[in-house]
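Ticket reopened. Same input as before:
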Amino acid sequence: MEVRARAPGKIILAGEHAVVHGSTAMAAAIDLYTYVSLRLPTPSDNDDTLKLYLKDMDLEFSWPVARLEEAFPELGSLRASSPISCSLEITKAIAALVEEQDIPEAKIGLASGVSAFLWLYISIHGCKPAKATVTSELPLGSGLGSSAAFCVALTAALLALSDSVKLDFGHQGWQVFGDSELDLVNTWAFEGEKIIHGKPSGIDNTVSTYGNMIKFKSGELTCIKTNMPLKMLITNTKVGRNTKALVASVSERTMRHPTAMTAVFSAVDSISNEMATIIQSPISDDLAITEKEEKLEELMEMNQGLLQCMGVSHASIETVLRTTLKFKLSSKLTGAGGGGCVLTLLPTLLSGSVVDKVIADLESCGFQCLIAGIGGKGMEISFSGTS
Ligand SMILES: Nc1ncnc2c1ncn2[C@@H]1O[C@H](COP(=O)(O)OP(=O)(O)OP(=O)(O)O)[C@@H](O)[C@H]1O
Ligand SMILES: C[C@@](O)(CCO)CC(=O)[O-]
Ligand SMILES: [Mg+2]
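Engineering reply: fixed in the latest deploy. New output:
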């Protein structure tokens, strides 16, 4: 029995970090996906291991089922029909199982992803043999929600082969879960994100699960309907960073300066709400689009200034800001910052030759540019064309 699931990455248009502290944020799915194929062996396969194959890196991790049973003696009561958080005891058992895999030092960041895999797998399927194969179009650890896309696609594949969801196995191509199954994927994926991020707001797994453009505050999402053509250039500075550490650093700054940081978060909340209002309001003509784009650019600049206040910008991000400003274009970091990706709004009337020049300038600094479709699909699964 085999299933393939995919889940998109995301951009945060406004409100990252502040959303962890209760402010509103705006995010949109992008058309770059993480794919997880899950295969449960038949008895005739005679395979008694759980395997995780990270195909892009050609890394395979495997655990004999007997080793899993030894590590999780209480599993009978642990296997959960509804999502639960990973206990301290299980966290320790998972850490030992991950350590035994001798992840190369240069790839040690993967340890949290492997831990999330183990937690989601054993919680949903128990100590059974299987092989999960993962590939991704998203750069890992760059602000485009690779961790959430990984957790969502993995959870979707796990649930698709469990008794928790009802699916049309004869359906060809990608199919979507029903609303209650999507909610279940989202809640489990959030538990996976907690293992990778520490204290996620839930915005990344939510937009990866449901897709579209969303406004998000304190766990609640509102779907944003818009007919505004919104084009963003995404520049990957290729400076590696870790969302968990950045989120923790903002929390520490908040403890040191609670009043000032509360004011910063409140300003971000207003920016995200104003952005949502602009994006949702109807468009009458080209002039209206230009006016809206100018307002959005100003809000992006203001949000970037506040992210600098939070201490999550980086020299590479500042270089992108300066480079795009030479072309009178506005940018802000997206995701956790500290390197990673930067968004630049490309106004509808901007000529293609200017876009080409901006990209050439950015790429001459060693950055990588892409233009992704935004506000598209959420997670989907397929029982055909699996590999
Ligand atoms: N395809 C994948 N395979 C295995 N692990 C992954 C995969 N994608 C993400 N991860 C895990 O998630 C970690 C990156 O998550 P992190 O939250 O730091 O960055 P991000 O999600 O790309 O950016 P942001 O959270 O700012 O949007 C990786 O180091 C790895 O542990
Ligand atoms: C930095 C952050 O706000 C967004 C990361 O994409 C973290 C979170 O909301 O979980
Ligand atoms: Mg992440």
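Residues 286-310 form the longest helix (25 residues). The first strand starts at residue 2 and ends at 14. Please confirm and we'll close it.
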